């Protein structure tokens, strides 16, 4: 099943806003400590500081942006089961 292009763009926009919250609007500071267990790795995330959390989400966003561009031109990349 392929995701509609509209939903593909909407999903990327929503995740970009979330990453923007983490990077710019205090989300990483809020996530420090036990709250990061819900967003990152449950074993080691509670030891991460805000800068490490920001780097993690930035790298995830770069990969997601590349996947988004590929999905724009190759609808098969938007497949999910």
Which features does this protein show?
single chain; mainly alpha; 81 residues; elongated; 3 helices
Provide an overview of this structure.
This protein has 81 residues and is mainly α. Helix content is 60%, strand content 0%. Helix 1 (5-24) packs antiparallel against helix 3 (50-73). The relative contact order is 0.18.
Short characterization:
The protein has helices at residues 5-24, 27-31, 50-73. The chain is mostly helical.
Mean pLDDT: 88
Query: What share of residues are in beta strands?
Result: under 5%
Number of helices: 3
Profile the largest sheet: none
Q: Span from first to last CA? A: 6 Å
Determine the fraction of residues in helical runs and give it as a percent range: 55-70%
H/E series, N to C? HHH
Secondary structural class: mainly alpha
Shape: elongated
Beta-strand segment tally: 0
| Radius of gyration, CA atoms, in whole angstroms | 15 Å
Indicate the low-confidence ranges by residue numbers.
Answer: none
Secondary structure layout:
Blueprint: H1 5-24, H2 27-31, H3 50-73
Helix pairs in contact: 1-3
């Amino acid at each position: 099943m392929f995701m509609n292009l509209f939903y593909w763009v909407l999903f990327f926009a929503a995740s970009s806003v979330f990453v923007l919250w983490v990077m710019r609007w205090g989300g990483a500071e809020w996530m420090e400590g036990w709250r990061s267990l819900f967003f990152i790795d449950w074993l080691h995330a509670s030891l991460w500081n805000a800068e490490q959390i920001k780097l993690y989400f930035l790298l995830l966003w770069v990969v997601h942006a590349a996947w988004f561009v590929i999905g724009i031109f190759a609808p098969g990349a938007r497949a999910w089961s």
